[in-house]
Specification:
The chain is of the alpha/beta class. 41% of the residues lie in helices and 16% in strands. The protein is globular and about 55 Å long.
Length: 392
């Protein structure tokens, strides 16, 4: 490979929540941290160069995206996802969770129902609850096909919950975190049909959309149909693809003028105005020059996933590995170990000294699962797996 993903970079004492929050959160200081979803790789050199040049310019005043940024975003999504974006559709927010919260406030009232599909990225239901809306869950169903475990949507339950709970908004995770599903176009079409039939707005979190493996192809929700495009808020960011989460910059696509106006009206209430200067600079560089680095990073991560799968199959066969179709997150099922959820997580954290995300954080459907981040040097991943297998 042209780029180095094997070198271990010490991230301690760098304000990284992945490492520097261990003491505050009561975690072992010597634990290997593979929980929060950022990479342990330095970002692409082209991005580092762009940020360095801006840093040495020395003036960090109020800033706005320019034509270079808009052209870069449009080109990236056209070439990678065959999705044509108009400049006016783009709203920049500090992050996707910020955008989801804004959408909930803009399109629903307190007490109204918002649908999610657990196990799912836990900030979804935390945000819904904190805003005084009702969380409605249509759980995903784990199925086995060709000896592979994967999640599917229970469409009958999905529509039933919408009708019974008078759901106003659906937050979709696409690709799915933590399950790793890349929803097919057929599945998305069915979601769209149901949501349009019952006047349910779709907020599609597509932050992991670039990271897909093999023959799995991410379909931007707005590419399903003109009706789906105009009934959706599509949330994206360069943060997962290029490890830029700390720069607080996301691209939210809202084609429907009325929806966009209502979103911006709610957004303006926060007092947030100009976006992050370094976020603009990094995003422009990433989408313009970062493709080669990203492809190598994705290849390395996929090899990590295959390594982890093989290692666990050989050394801890009681653990079922849900191989992701997308994302760099590995969803591990410890049910067959016969241990309780508490015992599983206690062994991993306090005995093996590996800090992962407990599956029950993603809903009760995630009990006896853990989520492991594979975007790390292989030597780190190997040591974490060795520690875990030793304790089981």
């Amino acid at each position: 490979m042209k780029y180095d993903f094997d070198t271990v970079v010490n991230r301690k004492n760098t304000n990284a929540i992945k490492y520097d929050l261990a003491k505050r959160r009561g975690k072992p200081l010597d634990a290997i941290s593979l929980w929060v979803a950022d990479m342990d790789f330095p970002t692409a050199p082209c991005i580092q160069k762009a940020i360095s040049e801006k840093a040495f310019h020395g003036i960090y005043g109020y800033s706005r995206p320019d034509n270079r940024y808009y052209e870069a975003v449009k080109k990236w999504y056209k070439e990678r996802h065959n999705f044509t974006i108009q400049e006016e559709w783009i709203v920049n927010t500090p992050g996707v969770c910020f955008a989801i919260a804004t959408a909930i406030k803009a399109y629903t009232k307190e007490g109204e129902s918002v649908l999610i599909q657990k196990p799912v990225y836990y900030p979804f239901f935390m945000i819904i609850q904190s805003l005084g809306r009702k969380v409605v869950n249509s759980p995903l169903v784990m199925k086995k096909e060709n000896d592979k475990l994967h999640y599917e949507i229970d469409f009958e339950d999905f529509e039933k919950k919408i009708i019974e709970e008078n759901v106003k908004l659906f937050i979709m995770c696409s690709p799915h975190n933590p399950g790793g599903r890349v929803w097919t176009k057929k599945e998305l079409q069915k979601i769209s049909e149901i949501c349009l039939r019952h006047k349910v707005l779709v907020v599609s979190d597509e932050i992991h959309s670039d990271i897909t493996f093999g023959n799995n192809v991410h379909t931007v929700y707005g590419n399903i149909s003109e009706e789906a495009l105009n009934n959706s808020v599509i949330c994206t960011a360069p943060s997962k693809s290029f490890n830029l989460a700390g720069l607080q910059f996301s691209n939210i696509f809202i084609a429907n003028r009325k929806l966009r106006k209502d979103f911006i009206h709610e957004f303006d209430k926060t007092g947030y105005d100009e976006p992050s200067l370094m976020g603009i600079v990094a995003s422009t560089a990433a989408y313009t020059y970062g493709s080669e680095w990203f492809e190598e990073a994705k290849t390395y991560i996929w090899e990590n996933i295959l390594f982890a799968k093989k290692y666990l199959e050989e050394n801890l066969p009681a653990v079922n590995v849900i191989v992701p179709e997308g994302t760099y997150l590995l969803w591990l099922d410890f049910t067959e170990t016969g241990l309780s959820d508490f015992e599983i997580n206690d062994r991993i954290l306090n005995k093996a000294k590996v800090w992962l995300d407990n599956g029950n954080m993603f809903g009760s459907e995630g009990e006896k699962f853990v989520r492991l981040n594979c975007a790390t040097p292989r030597s780190v991943l190997k040591e974490a797996l060795q520690r875990i297998c030793k304790e089981f």
